């Protein structure tokens, strides 16, 4: 004997946004898909669709990410200060070191291209560096500042609740 149970499908319109993040060598681009709207680029604080992929750490408690890092670096060049000092450090292209086992040769290309930063193997086998003397910070912790910045920019730009993020590294 066969029993047929009624199947009721309830379609509910959900107003939610999905954010796509493209992390490139020089810039980060963010797009947002909201319900009943075409995909559009998220603009940063300077109304630009691309944000510099950089982090500046000044002291032990000040962090500048993206366009703020660019503005900070520009002010340093204007004042003819050295870009690397004991007071601040510029980090670029940390994406190359995330999830990579620490070895002597893994970060060599970064040393030739960007501000020299000394990296070492941390207790988890990844890369860390020291800021403000002896404060150890992992590459993942530094990059989290970039992701937090992207989250804030996206939430300020969206008219709907953001339900998920998709990150690509190009």
Describe this structure in words.
By secondary structure, the protein is an alpha+beta fold. It has helices spanning 67-78, 108-113, 139-157; strands at 16-23, 27-33, 40-41, 50-52, 54-58, 62-65, 88-92, 119-121, 127-131, 135-138, 161-169. Strand 8 (119-121) and strand 9 form a beta hairpin. The longest helix has 19 residues, at 139-157. The chain is globular. The protein starts with 15 loop residues before the first strand and ends with a strand.
Task: Show the helix and strand layout.
Blueprint (H helix, E strand, L loop, with lengths): L15 E8 L3 E7 L6 E2 L8 E3 L1 E5 L3 E4 L1 H12 L9 E5 L15 H6 L5 E3 L5 E5 L3 E4 H19 L3 E9 L1
Parallel strand pairs: 1-11
Antiparallel strand pairs: 1-2, 2-3, 2-4, 5-6, 5-7, 8-9, 9-10
């Amino acid at each position: 004997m066969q029993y047929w149970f009624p199947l009721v499908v309830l379609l509910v319109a959900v107003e939610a946004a999905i954010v796509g993040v493209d992390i490139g060598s020089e810039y980060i681009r963010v797009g947002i898909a909201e319900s009943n709207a075409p995909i559009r680029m998220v603009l940063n604080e300077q109304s630009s669709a691309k944000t510099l992929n950089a982090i500046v750490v000044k002291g032990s408690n000040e962090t500048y990410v993206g366009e703020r890092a660019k503005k900070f670096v520009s002010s340093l060049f204007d004042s003819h200060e050295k870009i690397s000092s004991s007071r601040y450090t510029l980090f670029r292209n940390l994406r190359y070191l995330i999830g990579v086992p620490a070895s002597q040769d893994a970060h060599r290309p970064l040393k030739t291209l960007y501000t020299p930063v000394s990296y070492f193997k941390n207790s988890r086998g990844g890369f860390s560096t020291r800021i403000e003397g002896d404060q150890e910070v992992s590459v993942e912790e530094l990059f989290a500042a970039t992701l937090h910045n992207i989250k804030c920019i996206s939430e300020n730009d969206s008219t709907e609740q953001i339900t998920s993020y998709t990150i690509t590294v190009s």
